[in-house]
Amino acid sequence: MFESVETAVARLAELERALCAPEAAADPKRFAALMREVKRLRPIADAFSAYRAAEADRDAAQALAKESGADRALHELLAQEQAAAEARCAELSQRLRVLLLPRDENDDKNVVMEIRAGAGGDEAALFAARLFRMYTMYAQAHSWGLEVVSASETQLGGLKEISFLVEGEGAYSRLKFESGVHRVQRVPETESGGRIHTSTATVAVLPEAEEVDFALDPADLQIDVFRSSGAGGQKVNKTSSAIRVTHLPTGMVVECQDERSQYRNKDKALAVLRARLYEIERKKQEAEIAGERRAQVGTGDRSERIRTYNFPQGRVTDHRIGLTLYKLEAVLDGDLDEILDALLAADAARKLEAAGAEK
C-alpha cells in the first residue's frame, strides 16, 4: 500500500510543478485536467502526512516510556499517548486504503437524470414530481446547475416523466446511487377512506458523455423541428424551436422543448441521447469483460426497488444498506447527504472486501 501512496505523492509534486509552468495557464483544458488530478491526489498526500505524524508520535511515546524509569504515572500517560497514536495510525491506514481504491471513471462527470412515474396512476405522477423537487433542492444546496430537457406533466401537477441535466463537481459520484425504483406509501388527498396507497417511480442516472466518450454519427440522426404544445417543462415556447432527435440505428428518440432557442434545445437533446447510448455501450463492455458485475451498492438497475418513503411513519428506508431515517420531510426537501454518505461508505467497504479477496 505504501508504495502506491508514495507514487501518488510523487505524482502530486510533479503536477504542482507542471501547474506553475507558464504553458499550463496557456492551455485551459490541460490546466483543468491537471487540477482535477491534483484534487484527487491531495487527500492521499494529506492522509499520508498525517499517518507519518501519528507514527512519529507513537514512536516518541514508546521511546520515552523506555527512558522514564520507575515513574508509574508517567508510564500510564505515555501508554495512553501511544495507544491513541496507534489508533490514529490504524484509522489513517484504513482511510488510505479507501483513497487508493480504483475510481469510477465517470465520477467527475455531469449527470443526465430521468424520472418516470411507475405503478399508481396520478399518485405515481405526483410522487415523480416530488422526487424531481427533491433533486432540484439537493442540486441547489450543492451549487450545481440543473436544466430541464423535457417534461410531460399531468393536469394535477404531477410528472409522467422528466429528463434533466445536473452540472457540478462530483455530481455523478453521488447521484449515481439514486438509480432504481423509488416507492412511496401515503394516503392520497383523494382517498376518502384513509387507506394507504403504494406507488412507484423509476430514476435513471447516466453520466453525461462528451464527444470524446461517445461520438454520434450525423448520418445516424434524424432531427425534426416542431412547435411545442401542452405542458412541456419550464418556459414553454410558442415558436417552432422544439427539437426531436431520432437515433436511426436504435430507434431511440429524445425531445427537448424547454428552451426558446432551437440550437440550445438541440444541444440538450444530443447530450441526453449521447448519455443513453454511452451507458448502453458501457454496460456492454462491462458484461464482456467481467459478466454483469454488481455496480455500486446493489445492481443499480431500474427494476430494483432501492428506497421507500413512508409518509404515515415519517420514515425513509434505503433497502440496499438497511438504513432507516425518521426525517422524511427533510429528505424530500433535498437533505440526502446522510443517505448518500452511507451508500458511499458501503460501496467502499464492498470494494475493500473484493480487493482483499483477490489477493
TrEMBL record:
Superkingdom classification of source: Bacteria
Residue span(s) of domain Peptide chain release factor: 63-178
GO-annotated molecular function: translation release factor activity, codon specific
Chief location category: cytoplasm
CC terms in the record's Gene Ontology section: cytosol
Gene3D superfamilies in alphabetical order: 3.30.160.20, 3.30.70.1660, 6.10.140.1950
Compartment(s) where it occurs, according to its Swiss-Prot or TrEMBL record: Cytoplasm
Keywords for this protein: Cytoplasm, Methylation, Protein biosynthesis
PTM annotation (N5-methylglutamine): residues: 234
InterPro entries: PCRF, Pep_chain_release_fac_I, Pep_chain_release_fac_I_sf, Prokaryotic/Mito_RF, RF-1
Post-translational modification: Methylated by PrmC. Methylation increases the termination efficiency of RF1.
PANTHER family: LD18447P (PTHR43804)
Family: Belongs to the prokaryotic/mitochondrial release factor family.
Functional description taken from the UniProt entry: Peptide chain release factor 1 directs the termination of translation in response to the peptide chain termination codons UAG and UAA.
Protein name: Peptide chain release factor 1
